[in-house]
Design brief:
Elements lengths: L1 E4 L6 E7 L4 H8 L6 E3 L8 E3 L5 E5 H19 L5 E4 L3 E5 L3 H17 L12 H13 L8 E9 L7 H8 L3 E5 L9 E7 L2 E7 L19 E8 L4 H15 L7
Helix pairs in contact: 2-3, 3-4
Amino acid sequence: MAIGTCKLCFKEKDLKKSHAIANSIFKRILRPANGKAILLSNGDEKIAYTSDSWAEEQLCGECEGLLSRKYEKYSLEVLRGRRGTIINHPTSDYYQNVQVKELILFFLSIYWRGAHSSHKSYHALNISFSNNMLLREAILNNTNVLLSKYAVRVYKLIDSTGSANDFESKVFKNFIASPYVKNPSVLHSRVTICFAFEGFYIEIIEGGVKFKERSTIGALNANEESMRIKHICLFDIPQLVEIMGKSLDKQRAGHTLIK
């Protein structure tokens, strides 16, 4: 624990370990594996176990509690099917009686905290001063963020190929992907921040979306109490396929520390 300026309330306080991606998500993976998860990357590192939960001292205890109570706990209960009603369809899931605004702010808070982190897993994230203040105030005061500024899309990851072997299936169900940024659109000056956990794939569009895009499946609207989450095959996401593919190649070549 260290004394410093909390990045959310700007007060000088004791800082706590802050998890951009909620610690409970890491615990769900680490607990059954005796505190260790499989580390995958598209670099040269061997496949190995890790207990790193990507934490860093950023926020005071009060602000940590706020984010945990207001956004993390509720949103994870929704994603895990413990809140609201879920109607399953062949290509999407329809969630009713949920507070969509809380989920939007939950996902935006992950991006915001990750952009402030020096942990290598969040190295791809950057945020401008104006956007930092915009998100900070929205998170702190529980207010809507204009869709012209930031938009959020959520997808449920599936394997529609039916080709996953035991190794791939284990990884598919229990992995957290480091956030990455898609190439910005030259035409619309938009940047898409992407990450995956708990079997969901999330896109945050910095620069917002056009009006006609706001009603597409997967797009979240803070003024509604329902949302439709589209299914997407993991193997249709090039960046995740690259990580999975390289990891599978390492496993086949014996480039692993896992026995």
